[in-house]
Amino acid sequence: MSCVLIVKTGDAFPEVVDQYGDFETLFEQQLSTALPAHMTLQVWDAQRQLTAPALDSLTGIVITGSHSMVSDAEPWSEALKPWLQEALASDIPMLGVCYGHQLMAAAFGGISDYHPAGRESGTHTVRLTQAGQQDPLFRQLPKRFAAHLTHAQSVMQAPHGSTVLAHNSHDAHQALRYGPLQWSVQFHPEFTTPVMRAYIERQGAALRDQGEDPLTLSAGVTDCHEAASLLRRFLAFV
Fold this sequence. Notes:
Largest sheet: 9 strands, mixed
Shape: globular
CATH topology: Rossmann fold
Distance between the termini: 12 Å
CATH class: Alpha Beta
Order of helices and strands: EHHEEHEHEEHEEEEEHHHH
Number of strands: 11
Radius of gyration: 16 Å
Strand order of the largest sheet: 2-1-3-4-11-10-9-6-7
């Protein structure tokens, strides 16, 4: 059996976990709809289980989001960097999401830090670059598509040799490719509409502090089928 590892890098808000499941559950729900019979999903909690799974036992890696910050350089997070570097060198298919996106970029030589424009939250339009339109994972997406986002940090400097696949008005690095089968995205393909709205509600005070209206953001949340399809199509490269 082939094993796709979900690297859990944090916990969702308690009310989100209670109603919709934790981060890894959201990924399992999306991935399981396209999981071939010969493939299994395994979860590794990188914050609590310090021994990383052997890479030679894995055929794919998906890295979740987190409420931690990559720039804080927590020991468990820093310990992931050489493991990810080895996975890249071994050409294991990888897909990092949000924290996973920022962590992969930092592990491969980029810089992830707080975005000077503040938090991006809600459903927003993401645009493919020319490279994104030709990328084997992204090229089936429309040139402009809606995606769920919630992040205070971003990839501020992409690693040397990486390719920018998508961007928007807030973030120049909404999607990156690091090798033939290694991708990461700032947006959340695993989020559903109710989960996105729950995040906006929880972050209401912080959003108002930066001049945004949580009610308007919540009203603008829509289904993001194109973005969600990335998770399922990633399995084709595993």
